Known about the structure:
Layout: E1 3-7, E2 12-14, E3 17-19, E4 24-28, H1 29-33, H2 76-93, E5 94-98, E6 109-111, E7 116-118, E8 124-128
Antiparallel strand pairs: 1-4, 2-3, 5-8, 6-7
Amino acid sequence: MAMGNRDTDEDYQRDDFKIPKDTVIQIPVWHLHHDPEIWSEPYEFKPERFLPENKKDIHPMAYQPFGSGPRNCVGMRMAQLEAKLVLARFLRAYKIVPSEKTEIGDIQYNVKFLTIGPVHGIHVKVVPV
């Protein structure tokens, strides 16, 4: 799972908890993106959350697939554009259908340090259009 690293510029105190200046803070992005205090039904696939009319309900730091702020990923725009182009070309030539091994319903995830994926893999059929 990706981490966002930040150094603290000054001491930070909240109640009895103190973070000293120059401490490296790591933000586990997967956990941030699945926090039930931020997202309703955090494990549900709901792309409509990101529609323009719903953006006002999302805290600007709640979703950061490429990091955030002045040190976010420099390749973000290129990566998004390339992903859209590859997907568009693929979907023009093929359609994806469930196979006999496709998991339906609750899927168990294997969360590793830098990646996340279904425990039993992804099983689909790719059929030419």
